[in-house]
Amino acid sequence: MKIKEINVNRFIAKSNIEGIDFVVNSYVGCPNGCMFCYATFMKNLSSHDEEWGEFLDVKITGYKLRSVSVRNKTYLMSSTTDCYNKYEEQYMITRNILSQLVKFDFNLIIATRNKLILRDLDLIKEFKNVKVVMSINTLDDNLRECLEKESPISERLDTLKELKKNKIYTILNISPFLPYLTDYKKIIEKTKDFACEYHFEFLKLRDDARRKVLKFINDNYKDLYLDYAKIYLLNDNTYFDNLKIEIEEYCLNNNIKYKI
């Protein structure tokens, strides 16, 4: 892992994500190194030759927040990195940002795949409107290890439990939904006591990720390769169209708060 400190003017940027007004990214790069990551385009905006997941730029700035645009605004931490990656334990960039943001009244969403978020429970509990999103797409840690470098599933579930115990609004993001491999009903059954809401994000693949994921499926789930090729090479959306209807029916019948 190549670690580099970079000087930046500020952390906050306007967002192009639906429902999100501003994004806050503490780092460039992400040690989670997810095979399916949509944010690999960030490598093209950096000077790195390393593979995505093999570098991390730590954002350093002396800028202090005096104000933020808050009226009915929603801030997401983070959109292209994991703000609680394992190096945050050393650099504490995310904690520093939170300590400045806590004095403002706005909607904050924190997205992560790591238990380190519990370190900052003292700060997070001070926010008036905060939600934490934890992402998983399988309960099978062997499959998880093939696709992601960090954070066992059991740690993520325990983290959600602790957040809910501390009265933090928890969202379990079933993301990315792997065709024919993600058992969303089993995940919901396992987590329904400590997840306030479920989000479903279907697997979308950019060029490099598409090549890696299709190779992984061909090597490990050969019987599914043609189904994946139909979706990701022939752009056939039938599977996800039908899945959306199925999920909506299941959630409505079981009084589950959800978003697709």
CATH superfamily: Aldolase class I
According to CATH, the fold-level topology is TIM Barrel
Query: If you average the pLDDT, what whole number results?
Result: 92
Q: What structural class do helix, strand and pairing data support? A: alpha/beta
Query: Percent range for helical residues?
Result: 25-40%
Q: Strand order, biggest sheet?
A: 2-3-6-7-8-9-10-11
Q: How large is the radius of gyration?
A: 19 Å
CATH architecture: Alpha-Beta Barrel
Order of helices and strands: EEEEEEHHEHEHHEHEHHHE
Q: Which of globular, elongated, flat, extended, rod-shaped describes the shape?
A: globular
How many domain regions? Answer: 1
Strand count:
11
What does the main sheet amount to? 8 strands, mixed
Please report the first level of CATH classification, the CATH class: Alpha Beta
Low-confidence runs of at least 5 consecutive residues: none
Task: Kindly describe this structure.
- The chain is α/β, with parallel strands linked by helices and 260 residues long.
- It has a single domain, classed as TIM Barrel (Alpha-Beta Barrel), CATH 3.20.20.70.
- It has nine helices and eleven strands.
- It has helices at residues 88-91, 93-101, 121-124, 141-147, 153-165, 184-191, 207-220, 225-232, 238-253; strands spanning 2-7, 12-14, 22-24, 27-28, 55-60, 74-77, 107-112, 129-136, 169-177, 197-202, 258-259.
- Strands 2-3-6-7-8-9-10-11 form an eight-stranded mixed beta sheet, with helices on one face. Strands 1-5-4 form a three-stranded mixed beta sheet, with no helix packed on it.
- It is globular.
- The protein starts with a strand and ends with a strand.
- 32% of the residues are buried.
- The mean pLDDT is 92.
